[in-house]
């Protein structure tokens, strides 16, 4: 009969540091309703800092599965390219110039929701509520 044993000695309970935390923040994007005659305000969760660039990049990423199921649409061209901030201007990726008035309104209202100052967009035709 052969017996074996492990040579590791018992150790006390070891405690670690505090558990890591993740900061989740809400950001707002505007999408076009199913009837394509108005905008819908949507709140999305984002991990990390939220600013105008984050909101624009969320808009550029396209619809979530839930938004698709709700029949919402976006007229902002979807891309994995990122918007960037240069001084006081948000530079959108090449090829994402708003081709329609609804795309322009989506960008406009999303920027306003992020407390950005928006210039050059006629506001009489859009309701960002």
Average pLDDT metric: 82
Q: Biggest sheet: strands, sense, closure? A: 2 strands, antiparallel
Radius of gyration, taken over Cα atoms and rounded to an integer in Å: 23 Å
β-strand number = 4
* Strand ordering within the main sheet: 1-2
**Into which percentage range does the β-strand content fall?**
15-25%
Global shape: globular
Helix count equals 3
Helix and strand element order: EEHHEEH
The percentage helix is 10-25%
Descriptive overview:
With about 130 residues, the protein is of the alpha+beta class. It is built from three helices and four strands; from the N terminus they run ββααββα. β1 (about 25-30) and β2 form a beta hairpin.
Strand and helix layout:
Elements: E1 24-32, E2 39-47, H1 52-60, H2 65-69, E3 84-86, E4 89-91, H3 101-113
Antiparallel strand pairs: 1-2, 3-4
Helix pairs in contact: 1-3
How would you concisely characterize the structure shown here?
This protein is α+β, with helices and mostly antiparallel strands.
Question: What key phrases describe this protein's structure?
Answer:
129 residues; alpha+beta; two-stranded antiparallel sheet
């Amino acid at each position: 009969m052969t017996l074996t044993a492990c040579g590791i000695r018992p150790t006390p309970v070891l405690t670690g540091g505090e558990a890591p935390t993740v900061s989740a923040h809400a950001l707002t994007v505007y999408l076009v309703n199913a009837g394509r005659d108005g905008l819908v305000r949507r709140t999305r969760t984002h991990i990390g800092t939220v600013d105008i660039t984050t909101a624009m990049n969320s808009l550029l990423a396209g619809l979530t599965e839930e938004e698709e199921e709700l029949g919402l649409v976006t007229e902002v061209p979807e891309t994995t390219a990122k918007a960037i901030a240069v001084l006081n201007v948000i530079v959108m990726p090449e090829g994402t110039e708003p081709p329609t008035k609804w795309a322009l309104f989506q960008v406009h209202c999303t920027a306003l929701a992020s407390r950005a100052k928006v210039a050059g967009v006629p506001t009489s035709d859009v309701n960002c509520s």
